## 1
Amino acid sequence: MKKALALLFVFQVIFMSLMAQTLPPVDKSPMDMSYYPANYPVLKIQDKATEPLAARVVYSRPQKAGRTIYGGLVKYGEIWRLGANEATEIEFFKPVKIDGKKVAKGRYTLYAIAYESSWTFILNKDTDTWGAFKYDQKKDVLRVSVPVEKTTEPVESMSMGFEKTNTGFKLVIAWDTVKAGLPISL
């Protein structure tokens, strides 16, 4: 009986110490992930995936929250982590082509430089970085400039997703009243 009481006491102390720990608050820019093909993990679990996984992007979704985004929060002509918190990363599960340049299978940090009428997307070899504070241009794999489009409605939470194209797919980024797409060929 003494052993049982002692064990109960130990469990109670452990439980109380766990209850005393506080969890961090919910991030205002939650991390999200998109796949090509869309919903790939669910399709694979359901045995409905008709094509293999080609790409995945992991990013944090900042909110507009009444702020001026382009030309304000995101400065024109300056390197941007393409989201919030950690730098956005894109992973290719097979070799692809971007702007006619071969990109090896692997994981890359994805940055952007926003301008009023175009964005320059940058694939960089340095992964697991926070923001763009330690961005090193010498580690760039490629840069490609794409036009931006105006959206019909403002987008409150920055969003990324893949769209199928005739030659492969496109990573589309939309936030505020702007969207841009990075074309990727298979």
Note: Strands lie at 31-36, 55-60, 79-80, 89-92, 96-98, 101-103, 106-114, 118-124, 140-164, 168-185.
## 2
Amino acid sequence: MKLSVIDFETANNSSASACSIGIVVIEDGVVLHEAVHLIKPHQSVRYFLRENIAIHGIEPEMVEHEPEFDAIWPLLYPWLDKGVVAAHHAPFDLGVLNALLALYGLSKPLCMVIDTVEVARKVYPHLPNHRLNTVCAYLDIPLNHHEALSDARGSALILLNAMAHLNDYDLGSLIRHLRLKEIVL
């Protein structure tokens, strides 16, 4: 089963203000695709909050000549459609994706969703918290936190480590085994 792990960074508090997306695609344990895209936010949400810039380091000038999300979507859609999509704190990333799809009138992919926070909580309950940087540090996964591709890689490796820990390498079986909540896109 194809697994696509995504991570968004946003310019401000609007879910539709994505300024970067990282994606890692894995099938049968093999990385098929990795990419990071800078995104120029839609004109209706094209302002950057200093707080967001301080988190991810993306300045308005860095996306000035980048495509908007609707131009990037055709590159992402085939990887997400008819597979499993994962993200660390999936409600945030799905909220961004849904806001962008609605803003641009784009089709949703057909997919199951896994929240790697929920996976980490069930597999590593002893951790003080299950933030991406905490879980990655525990698993010795390199992380440049809040760089979208690095965060997507970290989330993918959390999921793969959990599968190895449980000796369960089938995504459908893992979802049932951990009794993960079904998240709808």
Note: Helices lie at 50-56, 60-63, 69-80, 90-104, 116-123, 132-138, 148-166, 171-178.
## 3
Amino acid sequence: MHRNDLLQKLEAYLPENPKEVQFKEDFFLFIKTYGDCFERSLAIGHITGSAWVVNKDRSRALLTHHKKLDRWLQLGGHADGDPNVLNVASREAQEESGLKSLKLISSAIFDIDIHTIPARKDEPEHLHYDVRFLFKADDNEQLHVSSESKNLHWISLDHLDSYIDHNESIQRMAGKA
């Protein structure tokens, strides 16, 4: 079954945050219910992969100012049928930043989140079941802003609130880093 790798990673993931404990249960139900959970065409929601990218001393995180959502977020995107969400997170981080120094810190899940994406044009409101992995990169390397982004910026973890408008999931990841 193409969902087994993600189910095994989720089984091994032991969140401490009560919200993530509930998310984990919801992930299992979603993945087991929908065989096409990795497809963007699943209108109710779909699996996405993200990268929490920190610098070498973990004092700063790389965030993108997402063009469509007009918010500062971690790098990531749709699985588009790829059941290997670690590959999805890695691919999206490289495409959205241009970083050559990007290195995976651990292949274990770093964080999970389920969040609502608002309706747009021909796309109904839906959920993103987001699986996040921890990466590091050289914060002196030149960044390349993709067409999906307004900007990229290394942000001090001490100053995240001025960018993220109290986004609980980003604050949670910053606390873990």
Note: The chain has five helices and eight strands.
## 4
Amino acid sequence: MHYAGQRLATPLWSLSLVEQVDLVRTRQVSPVDLAESVLERIQTWNPELLAFCALNPELVLDQARHAEHQVQSGEPLGLLCGVPIGVKDLIFTRDLPTAGGSPWYRGFLPEEDDVVVERLRAAGAVILGKTNVPEFGFGPGSTNSVYGQTCNPWNTTRTPGGSSGGSAAAVATGMGAAALGSDGGGSIRVPSSFCGVYGLKPSFGRVPLYPGCRDERYPGFSAWESIEHIGPIARHVKDAALVLDSIAGPDPRDRHSLPAERHPFADITPEAADVRGLRIALALDLGGYARVDPEVRQAVEHAATRFAAMGADVEDVTDHPPFGSDPGELFETVVAMDADLPALRVWAERYPEQLNPRIAAMLEREWTFEDLARASAGRQALYNQLWRFFQKYDLLLTPTTPVAAFDVNQRLPSSIDGSTDVPAHALSWFTLPFNLTGNPAASLPCGRTTDGLPIGLQIVGNHLDDRGVLCASAAFERETNWTSGWPNFKGMPEQIAPPVQHVVKTG
């Protein structure tokens, strides 16, 4: 079969996901050529970044050949037919190992796909491989004792964030136009901010989870049960919307899953997105506790002026934010409540020298019934504060993170706005509250630091208003053109480097 796309001047890996889908469906690009282009890109970048921790190129090409057969035979094509997509290594894949960054699950090959992977396959996507994570999602970076350390593509001495750091680093460098991430306290939004890409945490329940977070047979993976969200990371809002259409909707295996939306999210386009007349709040501190780096603050304030220029009614509510106090302690208690602590203690005894520090701290604390009861009541109060806030406003703007990407070997930046007195959860000051409430939220690029590191703006929507978050994101993308340019660490030329590390083979 002849494909005109073989003569495209633009490298296939660099096209948006929507463009890739269109070219495959119209027979201008072969899914095999597209897969080979992305695999070459992975060979170039992955040895330095370790975005992918498990990859089987032959399996990728087999899927691409199947997609090509579907196109040639005239079969009905799924929304993502022939498009390569990465999958975070906390999400189960039946044909690729799912270690979750833990030695406990080294080499573990699940018996079944996660619901979202089932849906990607049904949509015709080509599963590229597994993207690196910290152990069981306990960040703040994306480093583990099984595969190693993922680096930021804009500066390899900096962290990509976590726990979806591998997915964000992959998308930022064209190792797939999109990837799945998961977010229990900011794990889609933080790495998207640090890597300069778009990350969407949909409403809680919008995307069903199983077995991840929903199957007691897999301790570690079964944590984050009441706060976990799976969502897309992409360079373009329209790409994220199309992936969301492919994975959203109810499933009986997830009792929290929401009914399907009446209209596709991919109907939202930058050209048609309109924020005129919206009431938008800007909060540079959610409750008198967050401290923000001056460069981050300036970029977010400038982003707010862009929304005002587009016709939104923007109000600075930093002096009267939606929350009254830092919910970090409440969050840590909910995480412990969701975790299978007895099973994790068994694992900790087996691998004490490889224990993730955050898991170790959680296991060392003696939790009481009063702690859990206080967290439950506090979570109710937090949500009540937020829904009342959204009676007045349509959207909330905040920094995604209080700082840009910091040294990859640090657990937290040494200072935030001149202060060294920061709690362990400070990196998630602006993100974790909305895991507790379940509100939709996205991180989008809004600027750069003086040394070229991306800065993220967070857009938070009212309860279940994923569409509003996507519309505002698309409007901002149209006005700022954030997707121009690619990372190019060390002046690296566009050529093929040694083969990808951590390649796995299936039987």
Note: Residues 49 and 151 are 5 Å apart (CA to CA).
